[in-house]
Design a protein that fits this description.
12 strands; alpha/beta; Alpha-Beta Plaits; five-stranded mixed beta sheet
Length: about 300
């Protein structure tokens, strides 16, 4: 096997030394981070083949770091092994639901950690697979959205934290396609996707469903917070001016927002209903869909 990059995230320097000693004979290049925040930054920078991470660290805990790694397109497919002093059944369940592939209990023997690292690296073949990437924008696709919605809503149910979902549609994209051609429509779609993505947090999941439809899944976010985000995104989008033959094009969007705690059914369908209301009201606006208010009241919550 070629040399693999492994990131160790643990607040104890002695653990880093011990892991390096136990894996000295293995084809791995070990990078170190001593807290969750720096672990996230290094993971984004080096895109390791494996992350070995302490579950209980000061500040950002290992489970939260793992969740953010799995929410980022650059690190979503990186295997994560948790290292912990005591791993209860509940912690194990949470770790695997977050996407971890294994866990090691401290103190660990050299043979054990070598075997578990080898097993995690066995299927490493190079860059992360692109099966979940939408090719036009480079964002996640609908299949990945469905996978992440299931995981995030399951976590939200246990933690009682909200999840907000925003779906946006580029207004008049078909007309732009007919008047200016496909290259112009594709350029506008990519530009708006980048604008939206630049506003997202590391833990947010942004997907392109095709046809100029973007979906943002935002954990630990209320509907009101999602509404504020959508309004910020809309303002940034409408400030853009595109120059094509036969002339300049200013693009607008319609956006619908829904919050998980307000809905027992499909969160995506709830946001799509809000998007429908936004387009029905003339477009270029945001609508929040709440179960506790009437649709007429919800329509008033617009730009």
């Amino acid at each position: 096997m070629s040399v693999c990059n492994m990131l160790v995230v643990d607040d104890s320097p002695s653990i880093h030394k011990l892991i390096r000693a136990h894996l000295a004979s293995e084809p791995v290049r070990i990078h170190s981070a001593y807290d969750g925040e720096s672990g996230l930054s290094k993971a984004q920078a080096i895109q390791p083949n494996l992350v070995l991470m302490d579950m209980d660290m000061p500040g950002m805990k290992g489970l939260e770091v793992c969740r953010r790694l799995k929410a980022s397109p650059r690190t979503a497919d990186v295997p994560v092994i948790f290292v912990t002093i005591d791993c209860s059944t509940n912690d194990k369940v949470k770790a695997f639901e977050m996407g971890a592939v294994d866990y090691i209990t401290k103190p660990f023997a050299a043979d054990e950690i070598r075997a578990r690292v080898k097993a995690a690296l066995r299927d490493v073949r190079g860059p992360a697979p692109t099966v979940f990437i939408e090719p036009l924008t480079g964002l996640w696709n609908q299949e990945y959205l469905e996978h992440q919605m299931h995981a995030q809503l399951s976590l939200a149910q246990r933690t009682r934290l909200p999840v907000s979902l925003t779906i946006g549609q580029i207004d008049s994209l078909q007309s732009i396609y007919e008047e200016c051609g496909r290259p112009a429509a594709d350029q506008i779609t990519r530009s708006i996707a980048k604008t939206w993505n630049d506003l997202c947090r590391d833990e947010d999941v942004l997907c392109h469903l095709g046809g100029g439809r973007l979906v943002s899944l935002q954990p630990a976010t209320t509907g009101t917070q999602g509404l504020a985000f959508a309004r910020t995104a809309l303002a940034a989008i409408t400030h853009q001016l595109f120059l094509f033959n036969p002339g300049a094009v200013r693009v607008t969007c319609s956006l619908g927002v829904a919050e998980s705690r307000q809905w027992e059914g499909s969160l995506l369908q709830a946001a799509e209903q809000a998007l429908f209301d936004a387009r029905l009201a003339g477009g270029n606006r945001v609508v929040l869909n709440e179960a506790l208010v009437s649709r007429a009241d919800a329509l008033r919550l617009t730009n």
